[in-house]
TrEMBL record:
It is a peripheral membrane protein. It catalyses: GTP + H2O = GDP + phosphate + H(+). One of its GO terms (cellular component) is mitochondrial matrix. GO terms for biological process: positive regulation of translation; translation. Keywords: GTP-binding, Hydrolase, Membrane, Mitochondrion, Mitochondrion inner membrane, Nucleotide-binding, Protein biosynthesis. This is Translation factor GUF1 homolog, mitochondrial. GTP binds at residues 63-70, 127-131, 181-184. Its main location: mitochondrion. SUPFAM superfamilies: EF-G C-terminal domain-like, P-loop containing nucleoside triphosphate hydrolases, Translation proteins. Its EC number is 3.6.5.n1. Promotes mitochondrial protein synthesis. May act as a fidelity factor of the translation reaction, by catalyzing a one-codon backward translocation of tRNAs on improperly translocated ribosomes. Binds to mitochondrial ribosomes in a GTP-dependent manner. Belongs to the TRAFAC class translation factor GTPase superfamily. Classic translation factor GTPase family. LepA subfamily. Belongs to the GTP-binding elongation factor family. LepA subfamily. Residues 54-234 form the Tr-type G domain.
Length: 653
C-alpha cells in the first residue's frame, strides 16, 4: 500500500470516530479525496432530529450595534450545553474582522436543544448584524423566523437601528419579545428605556424582560418567553418537499453550502432536488444542523433550519431567495428577496501591477461568500488595471478591504467612494449611442455632456437620527449643511428626540457619521434607508495641471458645493505634487470656468554660488538671465511627471 493510500486509509478510520478535524491540517493533500469518500458513504451512522412541529421555535436577535446580541447568544449557547461555559466571547462571530471590531457582519445560525417542562424543544437561533450596512442580512434572516428578541441597551436606550429593526419585524407580523440588556451597568436606567419603548412602539411594561447577558442574569426568563410567546412554525410535513434558501456561502472542499428553511415535507440524503431559479438539479450529498459546529444528520424536516451540500459549484447557483423542491415535482416558489442594491462604489487597485493576479484571486474568493458585492473591471492610466466594486455602505467597504488583508494577505489601494447617478438623455441620435434614454454612472470618466442631458438624478435616503435634545440645534444644522430636508421631529421622552431627514446619499457616505458622533459627544445614532432618486444639479469637476486635464483626478460634485470642493482639492494637490524645474499651475474647473487655482513654485537653484565672493556683477546677471529663459522654455514644452504615489494620495479615501 502506497504512502498516500495508507494515510487515506488511516484518516478514513478516524472519520468514523469523528476525529477528522484533528488530521485535516496535517494531511491537506488528501482532503478532497477524503471528503468525497466521507460524503459518498451512505452507511455511516447519522443522528436523527425528528422534533415535533409544536416543539420547534425559530427566532432572531435584533438590535442596534453594540447592544449585546452576540453576548446574549453566547449565554443561550452555554445554558443549552452547545458550548462550554466561558469558552470565549462572541462564539458566533467567526470572522477575524468581527472579533477585531466587536461587531457582527454575517448572520449566523445555531440549533439548540432545550428542555422545558419535561419537553425537549429545538430552538433555531439566528444572530443578526446591527449596523445599517448589513440590514439585508437581517431582512432575509427574518424570513425563517416566527419571532424576534428586540434587544435594547439599558444605558443607551432606543437607537436608530433599533427603530428600523422593530418595524422590519413588525411588518412581517413576527412576535416581538422586548429585552433590556446591561441592567448591571452603573448608569443603567431600564425605567427610562421602558418609557421609550412604550412611546415609540406601544410596548407594555409587563412584556419587557430585564437581563444582563454578560453575567447571565435573567437569561432563563428569555428561554421561557421564547417557548411561551413565539408560536411554532406553520408548516406541513405531509406535503412534498419545499424550502427557501435564505443564506449561502462557499467552502473550498464542499462547494456552495445553502442554509434553508423547510416549509413543507422533508429532505433526506441522496434525494434529487431542483432549483426554481436556475432549473438545475442536484443530488443531496450532506445535511447539517449548526450546533454551532456542523453536525451531520440524515433528514431535515419541515419547520427546521439546516444546511444542504449538493455539489453546487459556486455560491451564485445557491441563489438567496430561491425555492428548492424535489426533482420532477414542481411547486409554487416561496416568497423571495430582491437582490441587495449596491449603494457605494469604490475602485480597488493593487499596490503594484505585479500583485494583480493575487488580488484578483482574493477578490473572487471573498465575493463567493459575500454576494452583496458587485464587481466590474476598471482601468486607470495612473493606477493600472483594477476593479470597480459596489458595496452596501461605507462600513461594508471597510470590512471587505480588511478581510482582503487579513484572510488573503493582500494589500490594495482604495479610491474615494462614490454613488450611482442617473441621467436622462435627449435626442434620438444620443439615445441610440448610449442605448437607452436613462443611463447610470458612478465614475466621472463616464459623465455625459450636459448638452445632451435634460435632467440628472442622485440617490436619496431617509435618515433617522436619535439624539439628546441638548444637541438638537447642532444636529439640524449638520443635516441642513448636507442638503437635508427635514421630514419630522418627535420627542420620544427622557430628553431624547427622533429626527427624520431626506438626505443625498453622496453627502453621508464619507464623514457624516463621524461628524454626527463628534457633534453629539457620541450620544446620537443614525440609520438610513433607500428613498429612490431625485432630480439634482451635479457637475463634473476637472483638475488641470498647466492647462492639461488629468482625467484620473476628476470628480462629481453638487453645483452648490463645487467651489468649496475645488479649493479643498487644489490645496491638497499643492501639498503633495512634487516641485518641478518650472512653475506648475493647479486649477479646478467646471467646464470652462476656473473655480480655484494654486501655484507650485519652481525649484530655485543658486547658479551664482560657483562665483567667487565679490564676483563680477555682469557675470552674475548673465547667469540669472540664462536660467530664467531656460525655465520659460521648460514651461512651454515640459510635461509634468507625477509619481504614482501622488495619485494614490489624492484618490484614496
Amino acid at each position: 500500500m502506497g504512502t498516500r493510500n495508507r494515510i487515506c486509509h488511516l484518516l478514513s478510520a478516524k472519520l468514523h470516530h469523528g476525529l477528522f478535524k484533528n488530521y485535516i491540517v496535517k494531511h491537506k493533500k488528501c482532503c478532497n479525496y477524503l471528503i468525497y469518500k466521507y460524503y459518498s458513504n451512505g452507511d455511516r451512522e447519522l443522528k436523527e432530529y425528528n422534533t415535533p412541529i409544536e416543539n420547534i421555535r425559530n427566532f432572531s436577535i435584533i438590535a442596534h450595534v453594540d447592544h449585546g446580541k452576540s453576548t446574549l447568544a453566547d449565554r443561550l449557547l452555554e445554558m443549552t450545553g452547545a458550548i462550554r461555559i466561558n469558552s470565549g466571547a462572541q462564539v458566533l462571530d467567526k470572522l477575524q474582522v468581527e472579533k477585531d471590531r466587536g461587531i457582527t457582519v454575517k448572520a449566523q445560525t445555531v440549533s439548540l436543544k432545550y428542555v422545558h417542562d419535561d419537553k425537549e424543544y429545538l430552538l433555531n437561533l439566528i444572530d443578526t448584524p446591527g449596523h445599517v450596512d448589513f440590514a439585508t442580512e437581517v431582512h432575509r434572516s427574518l424570513a425563517a423566523c416566527q419571532g424576534v428578541i428586540l434587544l435594547v441597551d439599558a444605558n443607551d436606550g432606543v437607537q436608530a437601528q433599533t427603530v428600523a429593526n422593530f418595524y422590519l419585524a413588525f411588518g412581517r407580523d413576527l412576535v416581538i419579545i422586548p429585552v433590556i440588556n446591561k441592567v448591571d451597568l452603573k448608569n443603567a436606567n431600564p425605567e427610562r428605556v421602558i418609557k421609550q419603548l412604550n412611546t415609540l412602539f406601544d410596548i407594555n411594561e409587563d412584556d419587557v424582560l430585564k437581563i444582563s447577558a454578560k453575567l447571565g442574569t435573567g437569561v432563563d426568563k428569555v428561554f421561557d418567553a421564547i417557548i411561551n410567546r413565539i408560536p411554532p412554525p406553520k408548516v406541513d410535513r405531509e406535503k412534498l418537499f419545499r424550502a427557501l434558501i435564505f443564506d449561502s456561502w462557499y467552502d473550498k472542499y464542499k462547494g456552495a453550502i445553502s442554509l434553508i428553511y423547510i416549509s413543507e415535507g422533508s429532505l433526506s440524503l441522496q434525494q434529487q432536488i431542483t432549483s426554481v431559479h436556475t432549473g438545475k438539479s442536484y443530488e443531496v450529498k450532506g445535511l447539517m444542523l449548526r450546533r454551532p459546529e456542523d453536525e451531520e444528520i440524515k433528514t431535515l424536516y419541515a419547520g427546521q433550519v439546516g444546511c444542504v451540500v449538493c455539489n453546487m459549484r459556486t455560491s451564485k447557483e445557491a441563489h438567496i431567495g430561491d425555492t428548492l423542491h424535489l426533482k420532477n415535482h414542481p411547486v409554487e416558489p416561496l416568497i423571495g428577496f430582491s437582490p441587495p442594491r449596491a449603494m457605494v462604489f469604490a475602485g480597488i487597485y493593487p499596490m503594484d501591477q505585479s500583485q494583480h493576479l493575487a488580488l484578483r484571486n482574493a477578490i473572487e474568493r471573498l465575493v463567493l461568500n459575500d454576494s452583496a458585492v458587485n464587481v466590474s473591471i476598471e482601468t486607470s492610466p495612473a493606477l493600472g488595471q483594477g476593479w470597480r466594486l459596489g458595496f452596501l455602505g461605507l462600513l461594508h467597504l471597510e470590512v471587505f478591504t480588511q478581510r482582503l488583508e487579513q484572510e488573503h494577505e493582500t494589500t490594495s489601494i482604495i479610491t474615494a467612494p462614490s454613488v450611482t447617478y442617473k441621467a436622462k438623455i435627449i435626442g434620438k441620435q444620443n439615445i441610440k449611442i448610449y442605448g437607452s434614454e436613462e443611463i447610470s454612472f458612478n465614475n466621472p470618466l463616464y459623465f455625459p455632456h450636459k448638452q445632451i442631458v435634460s435632467e440628472f438624478y442622485e440617490p436619496m435616503v431617509i435618515g433617522t437620527i436619535i439624539t439628546p435634545d441638548e444637541y438638537l440645534g447642532g444636529v439640524i444644522s449638520l443635516c441642513l449643511e448636507k442638503r437635508g430636508v427635514e421630514q419630522s421631529t418627535k420627542n420620544i421622552g427622557n430628553n431624547r428626540m427622533m429626527l427624520q431627514f431626506i438626505l443625498p446619499l453622496s453627502e453621508i457616505i464619507v464623514d457624516f457619521h463621524d461628524a454626527l458622533k463628534s457633534l453629539s459627544s457620541g450620544y446620537a445614532s443614525f440609520d438610513y434607508e433607500d428613498n429612490g432618486y431625485q432630480v439634482t444639479d451635479i457637475v463634473k469637476m476637472d483638475i488641470l495641471l498647466n492647462g492639461n486635464v488629468i482625467e484620473e483626478l476628476s470628480t462629481i460634485v453638487h453645483a452648490t458645493k463645487a467651489v468649496e470642493h475645488a479649493k479643498h482639492l487644489t490645496t491638497k494637490l499643492l501639498n503633495i505634487i512634487p516641485k518641478q524645474q518650472f512653475q506648475v499651475a493647479i486649477q479646478a474647473a467646471v467646464g470652462s470656468k476656473i473655480l480655484s487655482r494654486e501655484t507650485i513654485k519652481a525649484y530655485r537653484k543658486d547658479i551664482t554660488g560657483k562665483l567667487k565672493s565679490g564676483g563680477d556683477v555682469q557675470r552674475r546677471k548673465k547667469l540669472l538671465q540664462q536660467q530664467s529663459e531656460g525655465k520659460k522654455k521648460l514651461r512651454m514644452v515640459g510635461n509634468i511627471c507625477l509619481p504614482r504615489d501622488t495619485f494614490i494620495d489624492v484618490l484614496k479615501r
